[in-house]
Amino acid sequence: MAFTVSLSSSFLLAQRYPRTSYGFNPRASMATIVEKVVPAVIVGGGRVGRALQDMGTGDDFLVKRGDSIPSDFSGPILVCTRNDDLDAVLDSTPKSRWSDLVFFQNGMMDPWYESRGIVDPCQVLAYFAVSKLGEPPIDGITETNPEGLTAAYGKWASAVAARLHSGGLSCKVLEKEPFQKQMLEKLIWISAFMLVGARHPGATVGIVEKEYRSEVSAIIEELAGAAAADKGIIFEEGIEERLCAYSRAVAHFPTAVKEFKWRNGWFYSLSEKAIAQGKQDPCPLHTAWLKELKIV
């Protein structure tokens, strides 16, 4: 079983705000609460997996390439591999432990969960960067979200938050609907900015936000509408500004359409489904640009 961890959009370098205009200091607030770090199995020995291990108490079990996931180790199983490695991870995990899996992957995971029979999984939206193996992670905070963007949901959410807090990082524990909305916003961000950037070779995320704002605004509106309709949710007002604020925080990041199956591919599947049913494409601009770039 080959596990590799790459620094994807989940782990982008974001600007720190040690004390915000709202008077909220994430680290000061965390310091007032003593939280126990629960020992965990950590799958993936890359930058993120090692950083999570460093936040522990020395009692974690690190699963590296070729290792098996133990069945007799209680506690959460923190999965820090690439999305394409998930089938191998699941196949090596005793089914009795599936409810303890905590997924750190980004993108649209729901179809994969459903295909593998995973019900109500524990998930983490990780907005922190680990630039090199062994270096401390840097938190992801923006002007519109000074409390931090990282969030956790599910059975082990509080344990994950405690671990991240011990490492000086922010982490919100959310209920299912708020978490789903934030997950979808993150999916919309990477799908929209990477696609617009791909249309303008060499454009960074910051250039897309500054010079091609009308294009990215149009695609954000389109993808948000399609996601809201499919999931039966209503996004909070200001989604475009929140996504653009994040882009300003990671303005240096390059753009490219990657991991299509997990990102833009989900929106394209909504288009294919609608067209097959004789309905209008809910994402016509997205579809047109994918074809323009010969991605589909």
Keywords:
two-stranded antiparallel sheet, 9 strands, disordered N terminus, 11 helices, 8% strand, alpha/beta, 296 residues, 7-stranded mixed β-sheet
Account of the protein in words:
The protein has helices at 26-31, 47-54, 86-91, 110-116, 157-166, 176-199, 205-211, 213-231, 239-249, 264-276, 284-292, and strands at 41-43, 61-63, 77-79, 101-103, 122-125, 128-129, 138-139, 151-153, 172-173. The longest helix has 24 residues, at 176-199. The protein has eleven helices and nine strands. α6 crosses α7 (205-211). The chain has a seven-stranded mixed sheet with strand order 2-1-3-4-5-8-9, sandwiched between helices. It is an alpha/beta fold. 41% of the residues lie in helices and 8% in strands. The model is unreliable at 1-32 (pLDDT under 50). The radius of gyration is 19 Å and the shape is globular.
Brief characterization of the structure:
The protein is an alpha/beta fold and 296 residues long. It has helices spanning 26-31, 47-54, 86-91, 110-116, 157-166, 176-199, 205-211, 213-231, 239-249, 264-276, 284-292, and strands at residues 41-43, 61-63, 77-79, 101-103, 122-125, 128-129, 138-139, 151-153, 172-173.
Structural class: alpha/beta
**Helix content class:** 40-55%
What strand order characterises the main sheet? Answer: 2-1-3-4-5-8-9
So how many helices? 11
User: Taking Cα atoms only, what radius of gyration do you get, to the nearest Å?
Assistant: 19 Å
Tally of DSSP β-strands = 9
**Mean pLDDT reading:** 88
The geometry reads as globular
Distance between the termini: 30 Å
**Biggest sheet descriptor:** 7 strands, mixed
Strand content: 5-15%
String of helices and strands:
HEHEEHEHEEEEHEHHHHHH
* Residue windows where pLDDT falls under 50 for at least 5 positions: 1-32
